[in-house]
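Researcher: Here's my situation. A collaborator sent me these components and asked whether they could plausibly form a single complex. I don't have experimental data yet, so a predicted model of the whole assembly would be a useful starting point for our discussion.
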Amino acid sequence: MRDELRQVLDEYALLTVSAASLDPHDNLYEKGMTSHASVNVMLALEERFDIEFPDYMLTRAAFATIADIERSVAELLGVNS
Amino acid sequence: MPTGDGLFGWGAELEEVFTGLDRLLTRVGRDAGTRVLRFPPMISREVFEQSEFGQSFPQLFGTVHAFAGDDRDHVMLSRAMAERTAWPDVVRPTRYVLTPAACYPVYPQYAGRPDADAVVDTSSYCFRHEPSEEVGRLVAFRQREFVRIGTSRDVDAWFGSWRDRALTVIRSLGLVARCEPAADPFFGRGARLLASGQREQGLKYEIITEIDGHPVAVASCNNHRDHFGRTFGIEASGGEVAATSCIGFGQERIAFALASAFGPDLTGWPSETRDALWG
């Protein structure tokens, strides 16, 4: 899942560095992701994993790091499977 | 006097209130170093695209369309207009977009110039495509704005300083008002994420008063951080991407709140209100 997540970040997060070079706990906003870009990341993840983020996960903090996003996606995939 | 969905006209009394409000806001917001800039109520498509308003609020903007066709197209259009039927595809978007917020034409003025450090006083008619019966929600309205462009430190301080100033100016009119954290009405599935980010970071507050018993925002202060600095390429001192902030006053809403609180007869308004507007 992490590879797919990094692909989505490379495509949509407008990061100043490649997602592959990031530590899971690096702050994505500090690496160039704008708030609009975070929306595009969110929408792309929904499509890629066929999930829908519920309202409580739609916070700035929930998209702050790769680890944060992974946690949300894993939870949703668990619920769906 | 309504003239159509979300549009209205007014007479001498309301015009007098607008004049008084303009003078009051000049006293409160303008000082010797303030640059005064006025623009017509539209911006170029290029400026609109740079602003990224369409990414945040596609439901709110309006473009200027104009006829683009030959004699045959003209006949078709004339017939459709006479018959009140749908227009044929001969009226197309021009290079102009209606100004969605008074500060938008200001930012390009500072693009590509080093050491941007300014306070700007601006004002415009604004358009937002949200026809509504809701009290005070107009599609075309006057906004008076003060804009700060500079380093993030200076802009953050300015943004904070307006919290008390804006509340004080609305209260000086005799209105009961409060200041609340707020978020913009973003579009679609991203709305919650963007609004939560805005609230978590404390980037917007509004001054709320009442019109006919309904809470209505009459002023809003926004900290854009480096958004416009980035999209318009504005540089602050030291070469950092400029930060920007604006405080906007909705002049119709303030006037409606006054009429709602004190009645239609201006001579009967409290002396503190009259002094603030016309003293």
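Model: Some features of this prediction you could bring to your collaborator: The helical segments of chain A are 2-12, 35-49, 66-80. The mean pLDDT of chain A is 93.
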